Structures are given as C-alpha cells and as structure tokens.
C-alpha cells in the first residue's frame, strides 16, 4: 500500500506544479487513512491474537476435560463391566437359590404329604390303642369273673366238707363191717370195694383241696397233670364194678339165704346190712355223679378261661407293640418336622439376604447410571 502511494506521488510530481497542492492534500488524506488503516489492522491483529490465545486456552481446557472425560468413561466402563459381572453372578446365584427354594418346597410338600400319612397312621394306631384299652377293660371284667369263680370255690369248700363228713360216715360203716367177722365173703368183698371207694374219694378230696388252696391256674395245670380224664374214666369203671358187685352181692345173698335159712337172726343182720350197703351205694353213686359233673364243668370253665387269657395276652402284647411303634413314628415325624422347619427358615433367610443384596446392587447401578448421565450431559 505505501509503495503504491509513493508511486502515485511520483507520478503526481511529474505531472506539474499546478496540481501539487491538490495532490498533497490528497496524499495527506491518504496517509491519514493509511495510518488509520494500520491502527485498525493492529487492533484487529491484537484482537485476533487475543482471541487466538483464548481459543488455545479453551482448546487446552477442552482437551483436559476430554481427557478427564475419557478417563471417567474408561473407569465407568470398568465399573460397568464389574457391575455386569456381579449382576450376572448374582443372577446365577439367584437362579440357583430359586431352584434350591423350588426343590426345598417340593421336599417340604413331600414331607407334608408324608406327615399327613403318618398322622393318618397315628390316628389308626390311636384307634387301635383305644381298642386295646377296651380289651384291657374286658380283661378286667374277665378277672372279675375269675374272682367270682373263686367265690364259687368257697362253695366247693363247703361241699368238700360235706364230702368229708360222708367219708367219715363211710369209715364208720366200714368199721362196723369189720367188726362183723361172721359176714360172708360177699360182704368182705363189698367192704374192700368200699375201702377202695373211700381211697378214691380221699384222692378226689385232695384234688378239690388243691383246687381250693392253690392258685386257679396252677390247680388247673395240676389237675391236667394228674389226668383228670383218666380219673373220670376210673370213676366210671368203679361205678360199673360197684354195680356188678351189687349184682354179685344180691346173687350171693340169695345163695346164702338158701344155705342158711335156719338162722333167722343172721338173716335179719344181713338184711339190715344190705339196706345200709344199698344206702351207702346210692350215696356213693350220687357223690360220684356230682363230682364227675363238677369236674367236667370245672375243666370246661378252666379251658375257656385259659383260652380267653391267652387270647387277651396276645392282644395286649400286639397292641403294646403297635402303641410303641406309633410313639416311635410320632417322635420321628416330630424330629423331621423340626428339621424341615429349620431348613425352611434357613432358606428364607438366604432368600431375604439375596433379595437385599440384589436391591442394594440395583440401587448402586442406578446411581452409577445417573452419575454417568450427569457427567456426559455437559
């Protein structure tokens, strides 16, 4: 610009002096304008440099912010990766716990069903136990009946005493027969028969005394050991023999009367003796029949009572065993129920802990997302 101005000035000098003044003014104006332009240019350059410096400072600041943002993004990415890994791990743990909870619930349902079945079995055993109590009550009633039978034995005592009196009476008769040595051989045979009968009656008396003096069951066993059936058969045989002897005696008496009809006193004695013997025979037959009936009846009652006692003892043993088994099953079920309740409480505690941890991690992730959004917004 200055070169052009000087060139214009040189050209103006060559043109002539007339125009020097006008050119000079023009040149002065141009120089002034040039100085103004220079000032403006300097101002513009200063402003440009100032703005360039500000831009550079701003660029450095932005680069620093960008670097920090990149570092923050890298950290957030790392934290995000870690959190995603933790979330995946927690999801896996949660799935495992859900599976464990489902399995525990299934086991709990199975145990509940088993418990219901065992409760049903327990109710059944309880019912059987009640039946056992009823059976025991019946046993007590049977024992009461046995005591009543013992009271009947007291009646047998009185009958035995009557039998003893009869035996004493027969002994007296036998003594009277022994004092009559002039009797015939038939009378002696009858005396021997009566002696045998007295011995047998004494044996029967001993048996009855045993029944009255010892325990009922021991007496029954002793009666069986002594073969009451054989004794009963022996009694029947004795009855038959007595009948035969009576017939023989009648025949012998007829013969004796025919041989010794001249002695009327002897006939009177023998007739009196025959009447006594017939009375004794009838009494003996009556006593033997009563004893046979009582022995048969006692044996039947003893057999029935033994069968009832054996049956009741078997039922008592069976019901006691069932009751003990029911108590054991009930204890096992209670133990299993307590164990299942502990396992269920432990599983619920673990689930609550995992839910709390999951909620905490979810809140933390939301906070990190919010902070990352705030950092990325400028």
Automatic annotation (TrEMBL):
<dbReference type="Pfam" id="PF09738">
    <property type="entry name" value="LRRFIP"/>
</dbReference>
<dbReference type="InterPro" id="IPR019139">
    <property type="entry name" value="LRRFIP1/2"/>
</dbReference>
<dbReference type="GO" id="GO:0000978">
    <property type="term" value="F:RNA polymerase II cis-regulatory region sequence-specific DNA binding"/>
</dbReference>
<comment type="similarity">
    <text>Belongs to the LRRFIP family.</text>
</comment>
<dbReference type="GO" id="GO:0000981">
    <property type="term" value="F:DNA-binding transcription factor activity, RNA polymerase II-specific"/>
</dbReference>
<feature type="region of interest" description="Disordered">
    <location>
        <begin position="355"/>
        <end position="378"/>
    </location>
</feature>
<keyword id="KW-0175">Coiled coil</keyword>
<protein>
    <recommendedName>
        <fullName>Leucine rich repeat (in FLII) interacting protein 1a</fullName>
    </recommendedName>
</protein>
<feature type="coiled-coil region">
    <location>
        <begin position="27"/>
        <end position="166"/>
    </location>
</feature>
<feature type="coiled-coil region">
    <location>
        <begin position="225"/>
        <end position="252"/>
    </location>
</feature>
């Amino acid at each position: 610009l200055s070169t052009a101005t000087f060139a214009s000035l040189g050209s103006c000098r060559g043109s002539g002096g007339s125009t020097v003044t006008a050119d000079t003014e023009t040149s002065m104006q141009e120089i002034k304008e040039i100085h103004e332009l220079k000032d403006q240019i300097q101002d513009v350059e200063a402003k440009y440099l100032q703005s360039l410096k500000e831009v550079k400072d701003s660029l450095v600041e932005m680069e620093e912010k960008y670097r920090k943002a990149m570092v923050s993004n890298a950290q957030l990415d790392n934290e995000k990766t870690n959190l995603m890994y933790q979330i995946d791990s927690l999801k896996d743990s949660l799935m495992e716990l859900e599976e464990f909870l489902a399995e525990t619930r299934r086991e709990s349902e199975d145990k509940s069903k088993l418990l219901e079945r065992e409760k049903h079995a327990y109710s059944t055993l309880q019912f059987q136990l009640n039946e056992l109590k009823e059976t025991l009550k019946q046993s007590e009633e049977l024992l009461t009946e046995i005591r009543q039978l013992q009271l009947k034995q007291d009646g047998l005592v009185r009958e035995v005493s009557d039998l003893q009196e009869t035996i004493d009476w027969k002994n007296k008769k036998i003594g009277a027969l022994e004092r009559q040595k002039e009797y015939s051989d038939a009378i002696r045979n009858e005396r021997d028969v009566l002696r045998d009968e007295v011995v047998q009656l004494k044996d029967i008396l001993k048996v009855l005394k045993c029944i009255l003096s010892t325990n009922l069951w021991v007496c029954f066993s002793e009666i069986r050991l002594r073969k009451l059936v054989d004794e009963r058969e022996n009694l029947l045989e004795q009855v038959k023999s007595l009948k035969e002897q009576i017939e023989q005696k009648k025949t012998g008496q007829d013969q004796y009367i025919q041989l010794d009809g001249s002695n009327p006193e002897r006939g009177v004695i023998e007739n009196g003796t025959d009447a006594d013997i017939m009375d004794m025979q009838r009494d003996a037959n009556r006593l033997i029949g009563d004893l046979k009936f009582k022995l048969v009846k006692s044996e039947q009652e003893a057999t029935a009572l033994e069968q009832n006692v054996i049956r009741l003892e078997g039922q008592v043993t069976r019901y006691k065993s069932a009751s003990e088994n029911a108590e054991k099953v009930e204890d096992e079920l209670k133990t299993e129920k307590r164990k299942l309740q502990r396992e269920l409480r432990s599983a619920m505690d673990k689930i609550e802990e995992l839910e709390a941890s999951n909620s905490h991690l979810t809140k933390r992730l939301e906070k990190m997302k919010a902070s990352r959004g705030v950092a990325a917004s400028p």
